[in-house]
Amino acid sequence: MSAEDPLFILYVLDIRIDGLTQGHRASTGGYLLGAALTIKYVYDVHPDNKFACMADIGWIIGHIYILYGLLTKGVLTTVFKSMPVYPTPSRYWQTIKKHLFTQFYSTLTTIQLLHRLGSYHVELHDLSSLRVLSSMAEPINPEAWNWYKYHFRQEMCTIVDTFWQTDMGSTVVTPFTGAIET
């Protein structure tokens, strides 16, 4: 197999002038290398870690952080197919506590929703297994950042905000875990 052989084609929402959807073709070598490097350096993932990415598997972030990236490190992953607040607003926190996840990756919209629902749902659960918190989809705002930091082991967790582009196939801009104070 060549490094340039296709690994997958992900169809995005962009519609071309001719009315067809645009497919993003990821090459085997480049995509897997990018996945392995971001898993190692951005999220500080080790073989004994458990990574919780709450993105949809059909999204590029779901592809890399639910499947391909974690497989390059042999790390336990999860496919979370549910609403973040169903059947209870504690759904994510119950899952983190039950499976002892070390990294948690979710959208800013979800973080803001959980913040609005109240800290009570977070405080019910021991989340001491967490080491890295991350947000995706849009830049994290100070209010969400502070809530995230305060309720998730405070100075014990690193917070990583990521910027993505589907056609890049990987994180474009983000700090390395532990490289800057969060």
TrEMBL record:
MF terms in GO: acetate-CoA ligase activity
Organism superkingdom: Eukaryota
EC number: 6.2.1.1
Gene3D superfamilies noted in UniProt: N-terminal domain of ligase-like
One protein family per Pfam: AMP-binding
Single GO BP term: acetyl-CoA biosynthetic process
Ranges of residues in domain AMP-dependent synthetase/ligase: 32-174
One Gene Ontology term, aspect cellular component: cytosol
Matches recorded under SUPFAM superfamilies: Acetyl-CoA synthetase-like (SSF56801)
Entry-linked PANTHER family: ACETYL-COENZYME A SYNTHETASE, ACETYL-COENZYME A SYNTHETASE 1
Protein name: acetate--CoA ligase
Provenance organism: Bondarzewia mesenterica
Lineage per the UniProt record: Eukaryota, Fungi, Dikarya, Basidiomycota, Agaricomycotina
